[in-house]
Specification:
Helices cover 19% and strands 47% of the residues. With 156 residues, it is of the alpha+beta class.
Length: 156
């Protein structure tokens, strides 16, 4: 009886751990929908609830997510690449491993993600601590929170 009770506890614990691990990833449908090459359409930046800037992309900037958990962003001004993982169906964590802007290397951020057919929307929220990595305003201030919304269209 003692032996069987230990097995029951072991398998119950194993089942619990496996279910927790499965909950920390996106469903296959969401994970597959992000894979591919995307062209940047527009970006909107809000700082402390105030619109800082909004623009439509006139440059050829592309973002590519690969099934192996890597990504690459190429634009006329910058080139980044790194890894990504889904936290859940609505959130993606990215880490920059290579960048033409050296201070970005090692940055990790969480992006809320939505994919609607051929449109990808990423919303990155920067809190006060993560904004310390950015330069201060000329008056020495920095926002307490920033939201950056980037919209992409799938390339065929």
């Amino acid at each position: 009886m003692k032996f069987n009770l230990r097995l029951i506890f072991f398998y119950t614990g194993l089942l619990f751990l496996l279910s927790c691990a499965c909950l920390s990833y996106a469903s296959p449908k969401i994970a597959e929908s992000v894979v591919g090459k995307w062209r940047h359409l527009k970006m909107v930046q809000m700082a402390d609830g105030v619109l800082v800037r909004a623009f439509e992309s006139t440059e050829e900037s592309t973002l590519e997510y690969k099934a192996d958990g890597t990504w690459r962003l190429v634009s006329p001004r910058n080139s980044n690449s790194g890894t990504y993982r889904f936290i859940n169906d609505g959130a993606l964590e990215t880490t920059i491993l290579q960048s033409s802007i050296s201070k970005q290397i090692g940055w990790t951020s969480v992006k809320n993600i939505s994919v609607d057919k051929n449109v990808l929307t990423l919303v990155t929220k920067y809190d006060e601590k993560s904004l310390e990595a950015f330069s201060k305003h000329p008056d020495g201030s920095r926002p307490k929170e920033m939201l950056v919304t980037s919209t992409y269209e799938r390339l065929k």
